[in-house]
Design goal:
The protein contains 14 helices and 10 strands. By secondary structure, the protein is of the alpha/beta class. The chain folds into 2 domains: 197 residues, Periplasmic binding protein-like II (D-Maltodextrin-Binding Protein, domain 2, 3-Layer(aba) Sandwich), CATH 3.40.190; 99 residues, Periplasmic binding protein-like II (D-Maltodextrin-Binding Protein, domain 2, 3-Layer(aba) Sandwich), CATH 3.40.190.10. The strands form 3 sheets. A 5-stranded mixed beta sheet has the order 7-6-8-5-9, with helices on both faces. The chain has a 3-stranded antiparallel beta sheet with strand order 3-10-4. A two-stranded parallel ribbon has the order 1-2.
Length: 313
């Protein structure tokens, strides 16, 4: 069976990439064709129209608004979430020369703070929660929205004072002495989804095939978890990822905080509703909060775990 999978070539593609390169999808009877779609909006459209059957998306106002407009897809498995207080997968970083004077978000009042991505994304959610913790609001800062690459350059040349960034850029900027972490995402919004895997609705409606695909996906996720959280065949995993993904620096793969995915595919629906409510409160949703129970489908991951067995990590 042929399946088209949306990919973006970034390090966070690693769990899928391991499953793909190790032949797990082929073993389940799939001929997976990957299509590189760099923007989230285009990827969402491809899956919603069944031009692609699988790919990741990030919870955002844009996604919830798309659902309100009738775009049909199924959220089927965790693709990245924040763990505990030390998880820097998503981080607020401060320029190195300001690190001694900026100890909380309150110290960023009036300063230039860059957010990776577009307005209405998890970056806004993170910044708002961190600001609230320290007694200010996002309006107290001068926020700008830039690409992650542009933010790195802006921190290096002093154009911005602080920024929300993702791994492995967080580790790279720390190693280069350009910026330091003020707040790891896990310290502010633990458990929050940064991404979820989607199926097109027609593909999800084929439970036997959709479950087999999920089995292969979870095998890749578990291999990734084994390598980066349990040091099982880590070098072999890095060999594959360096060969096929955009990040070629082995030291970053070895040292950066890895993405955390639920090895049983479980989606935290309560978190998605919390993020959804945040965007609604900010007036960024047209049509109110969509009923996520119509779009989150846990049955496929549950069926796949029934075959593979439950993982405790």
């Amino acid at each position: 069976m042929s399946v088209t999978a949306v990919v973006q070539g970034r390090p966070d593609q690693a769990p899928f990439e391991l499953g793909f390169r190790r032949g797990y999808f082929t073993q389940q009877g799939f001929d997976v064709q990957t299509v590189l779609i760099p923007t989230g909006a285009e990827a969402l459209q491809a899956i919603a129209t069944n031009q692609a059957q699988f790919g990741p998306t990030s919870p955002s106002a844009a996604v919830f608004n798309a659902i309100n407009r009738g775009i049909d897809l199924r959220l089927v498995a965790d693709a990245d979430h924040l763990e505990g207080a030390a998880d820097t997968t998503l981080s607020i970083m401060v320029r190195a020369d300001l690190a001694s004077s900026v100890k909380s978000m309150a110290d960023l009042k009036g300063k230039n703070v860059a957010v990776g991505g577009a307005p209405g994304s998890v970056g806004d959610f993170f910044i708002a929660r961190a600001a609230q913790k320290d007694g200010i609001t996002p309006d107290d800062m001068q926020l700008s929205y830039l690409s992650l690459g542009d933010i790195s350059a802006a921190l290096a040349n002093g154009k911005v004072d602080a920024a929300m960034l993702t791994e492995p850029i967080v580790t790279q900027l720390k190693a280069q002495g350009i910026a330091s972490v003020l707040y790891p995402g896990g310290a502010i919004i633990p458990g929050s989804h940064l991404a979820v895997f989607c199926y097109s609705a027609p593909f999800a409606a084929q439970p036997e095939a959709a479950t087999r695909f999920m089995i292969a996906l979870l095998q890749g996720i578990r291999d990734y978890d084994d390598a980066f959280f349990h040091n099982i065949e880590k070098e072999a995993a890095i060999d594959t990822l360096v060969q096929y993904l955009s990040l070629k620096d082995r030291s970053v793969w070895e040292n950066a905080t890895p993405s955390k995915l639920d090895t049983n595919g479980k989606i935290n629906v309560d978190d998605l509703r919390t993020q959804e409510a945040f965007y609604a409160q900010r007036g960024q949703l047209q049509g109110g909060q969509p009923d996520l129970s119509k779009y989150v489908d846990p049955q496929l991951a549950t069926a796949a775990v029934g075959v593979l067995g439950v993982r405790s990590s």
